[in-house]
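ugh finaly. both done.
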Amino acid sequence: MRLWVTGYRSYELGVFSANEPKLKIIKAALRAEIIAHFEQHLAWVISGGQLGTEQWGLEVATELKKDYPELQTAMMLSFADFGKNWNETNQTALEVLRSQVDFSAAVSDKPYHSPKQLRNYQEFMLTHTDGALVLYDETAPGKTHYTVEAIQRYQAQHDYELSLLDFDDLQDMANNYQEDQENGFQAE
């Protein structure tokens, strides 16, 4: 199985630093979902390079390769100069992560010039994956809403799995994390 991991951008969740406690919870939830999918024959985690869920998902999958060496990772970018307008720190993080995945390419070999490139990227991701894990909650649609809608339209005509991680799931993970801390367990 090839799984598309996507969802909210970091700013949509108010995560502006790698040290924020909520990022530990988000990554723990992504980790649990990726492991669950791996146990159902997941072979590839495929994501984009957006700051937020996409990069976190690839970071988690890359870390999981220590325990699941057969797991493969790919970063697919929507256009050739993706991230070029980001600050230096974010550009460096993108390039470091890109160097750690098993495969990376841009769907369009041209620099950004049209919203059609983004639609083509979405279509590419749908047709080159078997399902999606999306960090998304209907109470806070954001940009991810358009991705979820596209997946649901695609599902109407194709066998395609959609797994949503919502705010309730994150709250459950946070509660479990806090309980583990109170009981003296060390989180990863």
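ok and the 2nd:
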Amino acid sequence: MRIAQITDTHVTTPGTLAFGCVDTLALLAATVDHANRISPGLDAVVLTGDLTDMGRSEEYTALKPLLDRLAAPYFLLPGNHDDRDALRQAFDGHPGLAPPGPFMNLVVDHFPVRLIGLDTLLPGRHEGHLCPARLSWLEARLSEAPQRPTMVFMHHPPFATGIAHMDEMMLLRPGDLLAVLRRHPQVRHVAAGHVHRAVSTAVDGLAMSIAPSSAHAVSLDLDPDAPATFTLEPPALRVFDVSPAGQVVSHLSPVGVFDGPHLF
């Protein structure tokens, strides 16, 4: 199974630029075209939050036709820049949207690998949160299929990256999530966004990764006193190639016009 992760698209109102200089709509259009060219084709695309820049209805209205160009089915999770109600309204009836309820958690059961999406949105805050209700939901879903290889997707990472200003906005109380995951070894990978950089680690032996943004990048500065800055690095997406046994191989695929391919 082949899954692409696109994250932190930060789509703005048409005719405007994020931070006055980032054309997030054009960058997402290029990312969608890039995803459609991946060979062999993708089985699914998961978008892990910050779908829009301000959570406005008109931003989601601009986002939907771009995502509908994806050749593979796509699934949506919110981030701290999103608004659940506006997202639900714009994508009403979309099969990759969570069912009605206070949170936008989702489970995708019809692939060889089970996909679980967690809603970490904490309205009015940039940090992420998984309350007891969301953790109980996760526990129940994982208990349903203990033998099925599973990937978990979310916006806020449950680990620190060393980029101080982003670590201040990571998932709150990550130990609560890790305690649930420890009880369910069928979880093979946790994929997050939020940080606008490619990052990977392992926590208690469980592989975890962060995908870079399809828009702007957070500057890689590991000085704990570094200011919050961004750079216009090429956008990229992650591609997960998952075997029937659940082995997850992660690739980073930059978006752009590059010379090649050339035969060796």
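summary for the 2nd one i guess: Residues 2-254 form a domain with the Purple Acid Phosphatase; chain A, domain 2 fold (CATH 3.60.21.10).
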